[in-house]
Amino acid sequence: MSALPPENGLRLILGSASPRRRDLLAQIGVKPDDVRPPDIDETPHRGELPRAYARRIAEQKSRAVALDGGEVLLCADTTVALGRRIMGKPADAAEAARFLHLLSGRRHTVITAVAVRRGDRIWAREVETAVRMKRLSNPEVNTYLATGDWQGKAGGYAIQGPAGAFIPWINGSFTGVVGLPLSETAGLLMAAGYPLHGDFA
Ligand SMILES: Cc1cn([C@H]2C[C@H](O)[C@@H](COP(=O)(O)OP(=O)(O)OP(=O)(O)O)O2)c(=O)[nH]c1=O
After folding, report:
1. How many Cβ atoms are within 10 Å of 163's Cβ, its own excluded?
2. ipTM of the predicted structure?
3. Which of 101, 118, 123, 139 is least surrounded by Cβ atoms within 10 Å, i.e. has the fewest?
């Protein structure tokens, strides 16, 4: 597997400020030619369901980034859903604590919607993963909050960090929980004409 530029000269633009997404792409040998983080209002609509919300936000991010011809854009949105409740990135430690107490001892869903845009055309899909969090004690929550690892993470935790100790079970896509489901992302990039090198494709 290599990060050779595609023969057709297409340039890949990562529409994301998330270092996780850049690292996940690197894992499959894909190196964006440029990074252009979108700046949009991520407030859910009243009554909006989590999956529809993640899809709308990923597509909105992809429309918020300026593109030249010959460029392919990749954007994503990761949302934690407890039933119909949408948990985005906590504003502060108090909100992260609230999220963690709600998730404690229960099963929730992590949805990552991925949107690939080329010109006016968007290829998108959502990937859902069921996640069980063990019952958390107050000291466990407080020790985790003190690490600061919850910052910028949907639902107030990151499975790839210390909170991995809180997650005994998932069913779905680990890379989707971290922010970019690699198998589906590779499929969308190829559908948009961005060739991936390597024999995994
Ligand atoms: C649940 C969970 C989320 N996350 C992260 C992935 C996303 O970066 C973040 C959710 O926020 P997003 O709004 O999806 O993305 P972002 O603000 O980090 O970056 P951008 O909008 O520029 O693409 O939560 C983890 O890293 N691990 C986890 O286990």
Report:
1. 22
2. 0.98
3. 139
CA 67 to ligand 1 centroid distance, Å: 23
Give the residue extent of every domain in the chain.
11-191
CATH of domain 11-191: 3.90.950.10
Query: For this structure, is 149 an active site residue?
Result: no
Q: How far apart are CA 73 and CA 36, in angstroms?
A: 9
pLDDT digits 0-9 by tens, 23-47: 999 999 999 999 999 999 999 999 9
Q: What is the rounded CA–CA span in Å between residue 102 and residue 96?
A: 10
Q: What is the pLDDT of residues 75-108, one digit of tens each?
A: 999 999 999 999 999 999 999 999 999 999 999 9
Q: Among 13, 18, 21, 55, which residue has the most ligand 1 atoms within 8 Å of its CB, making it the best to mutate?
A: 18
- The residue nearest atom 13 of ligand 1, judged by CA position, is 77
Q: What does DSSP assign to residue 165? A: G
